[in-house]
Design brief:
By secondary structure, the protein is an alpha/beta fold. The chain contains six helices and six strands, in the order E-H-H-E-H-E-H-E-H-E-E-H. The relative contact order is 0.20.
Length: 177
């Protein structure tokens, strides 16, 4: 009998500011190559859709937004009152949590969630997804950017993008002329 290999259908949610700040504040500082990162998520975690959340649209960042989308991410922005732009922190945590809960409520076809952030605000969501068998992994930007709230999380549920075996696959390398 021919057994077909079942392909997972996982979704990733990236807290863009947390990812950037986490790699930028690492020692030494480094940055993620978004195309390599998207391939890594697809190959390693079977991510079919990857949502990249940013705090707000900033004039002059069109090149960055194009790069994120060209790399295969679905770009999502946090809605802000126009009077607060530039004053208010991006804070996409509640947007990501709401988006995931909406997928669950609407019984969207997916297997598990991969979360990219070190923010402790996601801890309750992570615990819930684990209980519901809907959680794959949380990827912390670096070891120092992971909230202490995750200390009791089993190692099967987290990894660090700064681990050398991961970092070498996704690091941005300047092209030499």
């Amino acid at each position: 009998m021919n057994k077909k290999k079942i392909q997972e259908n996982n979704f990733a949610f990236i807290d863009g500011q947390n990812l950037y700040m986490g790699t930028d504040s690492d020692k030494p500082s480094w940055h993620v190559d978004l195309k390599k990162f998207r391939v890594y998520l697809r190959d390693k975690y079977k991510v079919s859709k990857a949502f990249y959340f940013l705090g707000c649209i900033i004039d002059g960042n069109d090149k960055l937004y194009d790069e994120i989308q060209d790399s295969g991410f679905i770009l999502k922005f946090r809605e802000h009152n126009p009077a607060m732009l530039g004053v208010k922190k991006g804070n996409v945590d509640s947007d990501i949590i709401f988006h995931i809960m909406k997928l669950l409520y609407q019984k969207e076809e997916f297997d598990k969630i991969v979360l990219v952030s070190g923010d402790g605000d996601y801890k309750m969501l992570v615990d819930f997804l684990i209980k519901e068998y809907k959680f794959k992994k949380i990827l912390f930007p670096n070891k120092y950017f992971a909230s202490s709230l995750y200390k009791k999380l089993g190692s099967e549920y987290f990894d660090y993008l700064s681990n050398e075996n991961i970092k070498r696959k996704i690091i941005y390398k300047k092209k030499t002329p």
